[in-house]
């Protein structure tokens, strides 16, 4: 195999993505920037006028923001878990998807915490969490865990980027602005792919992979404890930590599948991201969906059977005011992946991606049903409160900030995809099965067509 | 499916019988539905000396109870000569009719001091009339709580009240003791009461609430002469919760537990050691890169 030839060929394949942005690409980016800008405006309104511009009141103090925080961190956890496990598996199948997963992990961790900041009434006191931490408080554990996890994930992502930064630095034929080439040079930190450097990088990445799995479990467990260590009806549950982890993995796998579909269609990577990626991810999603259904059933069944007064009030609210939400989140979201993946004729890329989209929405609603109805049914109701203070309904400010959060995530993902190849080039070259005799890449036994 | 169908049919039949529906589903009649009706009448003298007259009215089909709902039960205090209506009460969804009369209610008694009461359902449509009578003597249970180092005791005095209102110790009766649990009552003893008095040695190992308080029930049950009589007393003889130490854990305590501080610190040190290890490797990669650049 001619290594230089392979590098050149792969670079040629990804050069158009890195060098140019199509008109549609610019429209997409400008639209995302506009939405993020609108979100900044909404945040400005909230910070200047206070939380009265949101639907959060005396009872429901965590609305859309809390739900989003919970949800996005779950996605991050799933991404971290999946990418770290894939790191230990030597298979060419993982190569086209691993960077997408790693990017989702870090970007989720960057976007998620903003939503918890939006829940805070006194954001100016945020630094008190670090100045006056209380080790007994799950909130403190959460702050420590998320901050550490973010650093671990960024270091891990950077470690996996280093070889590709070196490839981008070493190929002058790429038509990139000088500042970008200088940035690649700086980020490549003198990596020349020598055996010693390779060994060091491998050792560091492996250690971080192990750490990232443990951190992901720790972070999401602590997040679940913020709820389950309280006595609130609907939250005080011994299975909440594992339930949160399963729900997080489910949402994360779904986000990964949808992202794979979007990347495949946007960058025309049909040769790299093949049907098998969707089938395997789909089966993983189905297994997690079954687990998610099992934990959901256990959670609600034990509450219903024990027949405690406040739990029953909560369940009545779920089967009355939130009936359709409940059916969608806890029935359809579980049944659809099973149906799609069980019958071969349904197992198409589009169907699996659509199912993943339904799962994304379903798990989000599931998180909503955990947070909001419980806060609407507190142990100590506040007397003489107006109904609109008891029941939560989000305002335009909250909707806009949610959309801005999603747009921010997509924008950062687009920037990463434009800045480094979304498929790790070095790993394609390292894996013998992914390169044919002439140096052209092939994935999963499928030879890639000529890119020139 | 089959069971729920039978159940639906049963309810339809009972509702139909009660409200005299002329268009009773034929299919239900064809299914050979038959109900054995039960009309049970009891009286309870409560701890506050009020008296409850309770009727359970239900049908039985295939060993399953089907309560009669909203049936008007009329209660009469009777002697040989007269019958006085003392109250009415409709049955609940469980088929229970409960008439409770105040402690100072003046009943008509017969020569032997018995209160004769009849509960009557007049019938409705296809549902036949039912009637049940009972005769009880009024009985007072008095409890005397005795605390001593050898052990706590409850002395029970059981006196019946004659026509003149005089209290006379009863000859003998079964007597039962319970304490109130979270869901139901826990039996703690039973014995034979003689000459109107019984001394009960209270167990010293029964857990109470957080203050060790217990609610004790003393009962005479289904007695031929006195029916059901209950008396209660609150005692502070429970063992109380067992706290491991005097320290109470609070979120706002000044310091976190040592184990928690050690665990969190160990985890954080392990993670940061890994981060530093990775950064160290990156620095070494950088150094080697620089050396390679200088040599070439």
For the structure shown, list the relevant keywords:
heterodimer, A: 452 residues, mainly alpha, 2 domains, 2 strands, disordered C terminus, B: 296 residues, alpha+beta, Immunoglobulin-like, eight-stranded mixed β-sheet, four-stranded antiparallel β-sheet, 3 helices, 21% helix
How would the blueprint of this fold be written?
The complex is a heterodimer of chains A (452) and B (296).
Chain A: H1 3-19, H2 23-49, H3 64-88, H4 95-119, H5 128-131, H6 138-170, H7 178-187, H8 195-228, H9 240-266, H10 275-306, H11 309-318, H12 323-342, H13 349-376, H14 387-390, H15 396-419, H16 425-430, E1 442-443, E2 446-447
Antiparallel strand pairs in A: 1-2
Chain B: H1 2-19, H2 26-30, E1 36-45, E2 51-61, E3 64-67, E4 72-78, E5 83-90, E6 96-101, E7 114-121, E8 130-137, E9 139-146, E10 153-161, E11 167-169, E12 172-180, E13 185-194, E14 197-201, E15 214-223, E16 227-235, H3 258-295
Parallel strand pairs in B: 1-16
Antiparallel strand pairs in B: 1-2, 2-3, 2-6, 4-5, 4-7, 7-8, 9-10, 10-11, 10-14, 12-13, 12-15, 15-16
The total domain count of chain B is: 2
SS field, number of helical segments of chain A: 16
Strand content of chain B: 35-45%
- Assign the CATH class of the largest domain in chain B: Mainly Beta
* Protein chains sharing the most extensive interface: A-B, 29 and 28 residues
Q: What characterizes the major β-sheet of chain A?
A: 2 strands, antiparallel
The CATH topology of the largest domain in chain B: Immunoglobulin-like
Alpha-carbon distance between the two ends of chain A: 19 Å
What is the arithmetic mean of pLDDT of chain A? Answer: 83
* Helical proportion of chain B, percent range: 10-25%
């Amino acid at each position: 195999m001619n290594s230089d030839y392979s590098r050149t060929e792969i670079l040629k394949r990804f050069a158009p993505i890195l060098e140019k942005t199509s008109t549609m690409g610019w429209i997409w980016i400008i639209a995302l920037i506009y939405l993020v800008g609108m979100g900044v405006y909404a945040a400005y309104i909230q910070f200047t006028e206070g939380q009265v511009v949101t639907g959060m009141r005396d009872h429901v103090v965590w609305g859309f923001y809390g739900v989003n925080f919970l949800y996005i961190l779950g996605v991050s956890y799933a991404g971290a878990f999946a990418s770290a496990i894939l790191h230990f598996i030597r298979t060419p199948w993982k190569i086209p998807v691993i960077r997408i997963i790693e990017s989702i992990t870090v970007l989720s961790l960057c976007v998620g915490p903003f939503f918890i900041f939006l829940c805070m009434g006194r954001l100016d006191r945020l630094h008190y969490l670090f100045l006056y931490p209380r080790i007994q408080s799950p909130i403190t554990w959460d702050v420590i865990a998320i901050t550490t996890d973010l650093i671990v994930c960024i270091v891990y992502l950077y470690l996996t980027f280093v070889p590709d930064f070196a490839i981008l630095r070493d190929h002058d034929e790429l038509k990139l602005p000088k500042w970008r080439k200088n940035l690649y040079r700086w980020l490549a930190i003198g990596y020349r792919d020598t055996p010693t450097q390779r060994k060091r990088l491998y050792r560091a990445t492996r250690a971080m992979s192990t750490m990232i799995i443990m951190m992901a479990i720790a972070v999401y467990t602590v997040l679940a404890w913020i709820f389950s260590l309280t006595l609130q009806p609907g939250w005080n549950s011994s299975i909440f930590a594992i339930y949160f982890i399963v729900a997080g993995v489910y949402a994360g796998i779904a986000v990964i599948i949808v992202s794979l579909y979007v990347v495949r269609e946007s960058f025309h990577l049909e040769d790299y991201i093949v049907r098998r990626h969707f089938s395997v991810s789909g089966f993983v999603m189905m297994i997690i969906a079954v687990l998610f259904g099992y934990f959901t059933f256990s959670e609600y069944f034990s509450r219903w059977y024990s027949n405690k007064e406040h739990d029953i009030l909560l369940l009545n609210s779920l089967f009355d005011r939130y009936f359709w939400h409940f059916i969608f989140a806890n029935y359809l979201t579980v049944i659809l992946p099973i149906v799609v993946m069980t019958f071969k004729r349904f197992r198409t890329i589009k169907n699996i991606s659509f199912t993943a989209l339904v799962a994304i929405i379903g798990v989000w609603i599931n998180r909503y049903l955990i947070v909001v109805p419980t806060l609407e049914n507190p142990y100590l109701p506040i007397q003489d409160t107006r109904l609109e203070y008891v029941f939560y309904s989000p305002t335009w400010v909250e909707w806009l900030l949610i959309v801005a959060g999603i747009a921010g995530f997509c924008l950062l993902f687009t920037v990463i995809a434009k800045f480094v190849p979304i498929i790790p080039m070095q790993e394609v070259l390292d894996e013998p099965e992914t390169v044919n005799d002439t140096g052209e890449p092939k994935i999963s036994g499928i030879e890639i067509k000529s890119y020139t | 499916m089959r069971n729920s169908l039978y159940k639906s049919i049963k309810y339809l039949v009972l509702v139909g019988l009660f409200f005299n529906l002329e268009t009773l589903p034929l299919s239900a009649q064809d299914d050979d539905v038959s109900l054995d009706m039960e009309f049970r009448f009891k009286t309870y003298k409560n701890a506050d000396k009020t008296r409850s007259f309770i009727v359970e009215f239900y049908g039985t089909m295939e060993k399953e109870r089907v309560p009669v709902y909203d049936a008007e039960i009329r209660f009469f205090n009777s002697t040989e000569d007269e019958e006085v209506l003392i109250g009415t009460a409709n049955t609940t969804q469980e088929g229970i009719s409960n008439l409770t009369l105040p402690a100072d209610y003046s009943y008509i008694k017969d020569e032997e001091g018995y209160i004769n009461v009849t509960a009557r359902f007049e019938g409705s449509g296809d549902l036949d009339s039912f009637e049940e009578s009972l005769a009880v003597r009024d009985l007072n249970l008095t409890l005397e709580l005795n605390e001593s180092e050898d052990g706590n005791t409850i002395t029970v005095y059981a006196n019946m009240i004659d026509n003149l209102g005089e209290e006379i110790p009863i000859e003998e009766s079964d007597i039962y003791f319970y304490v109130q649990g979270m869901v139901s009552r826990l039996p703690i003893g039973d014995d034979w009461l003689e000459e109107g008095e019984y001394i009960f040695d209270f167990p010293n190992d029964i857990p109470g609430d957080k203050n060790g308080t217990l609610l004790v029930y003393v009962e005479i049950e289904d007695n031929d002469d006195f029916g059901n009589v209950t008396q209660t007393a609150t005692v502070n003889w429970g063992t109380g919760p067992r706290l491991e130490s005097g320290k109470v854990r609070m979120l706002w305590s000044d310091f976190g537990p040592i184990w928690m501080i050690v665990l969190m610190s160990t985890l954080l040190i392990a993670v940061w050691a890994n981060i530093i290890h990775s950064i160290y490797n990156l620095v070494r990669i950088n150094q080697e890169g620089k050396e390679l650049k200088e040599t070439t």
